[in-house]
Design goal:
single chain, alpha/beta, Rossmann fold, 7-stranded mixed sheet, 38% helix, binds flavin mononucleotide, FMN_Rdtase-like_dom, FMN, Flavodoxin/NO_synth, Flavodoxin_CS, flavoprotein
Length: 187
């Protein structure tokens, strides 16, 4: 049986959308069904979110936290929170920003607290850090070294057709695959 997994994301300039698409590809590679939902369109998808086995959250890091648009989605979800409609669903997160750190961790922490408020079960990235030894490379999976979720880095002066680099897209796919596999195991 196919598990439906939702990816709810915001992207102001297209870079985080590329990451969201890579996460979705990872889900599909694990033979699960994926719904890619931009936050602008969430009002047409509350039923999809209610049906999903897992929800993966994605936002650029703006000013050290989720973007205002993503926070708008979080606040809108308070109706679902009141009913604990997402309780016991799996949750995971990803973010993208211009700097290597750029305070991306704070964005993932914000998402994990949000998931906890909803009674959801947080799934981390599950990869060892890459690119942190003399033999490491920027091509490594998880080159930014995150545990809580997938991180991507997009140079501020390059378009979404060029960045984030392939390693970050591959890392995002791993997150999608992992959540799909966990959803199947959790069934
Ligand atoms: C309002 C604003 C705030 C930003 N704040 C940060 C930040 O705190 N850390 C960082 O590394 N990059 C920051 N950036 C850069 C974006 O995270 C980066 O350009 C990212 O790729 C944008 O993703 P998007 O194209 O999906 O909107 C900021 C960009 C904007 C527009």
């Amino acid at each position: 049986m196919s598990h439906s997994i939702a990816v709810v994301y915001h992207s102001g300039y297209g870079h985080t959308k590329v990451v969201a698409e890579a996460v979705a590809q990872g889900v599909e590679e694990s033979n699960a069904e994926v719904k890619l939902i931009p936050v602008e369109d969430v009002d047409n998808h509350w039923d999809d979110l209610a049906e999903a086995k897992a929800i993966i959250f994605g936002s650029p890091t703006y000013m050290g936290s989720v973007s205002a648009d993503f926070k708008g989605f979080m606040d809108k979800s308070s109706k679902v929170w009141g009913e604990q409609g997402w309780k016991d669903k799996l949750a995971a997160g990803f973010t993208n920003s211009a700097s290597f750190s750029g305070d991306k961790l704070n964005t993932l922490i914000q998402m994990s607290v949000f998931a906890a408020q909803h009674g959801m079960i947080w799934v981390g990235l599950g990869l060892m850090p890459g690119n942190n030894t003399s033999e490491g490379s920027p091509e490594d999976l998880n080159r930014i070294g995150s545990y809580l979720g997938a991180m991507a880095q997009s140079n501020a002066d390059q378009g979404a057709d060029v960045v984030p680099p392939n390693a970050d897209k591959e890392t995002a796919k791993v997150l999608g695959r992992r959540v799909a596999e966990m959803a199947a195991r959790f069934q």
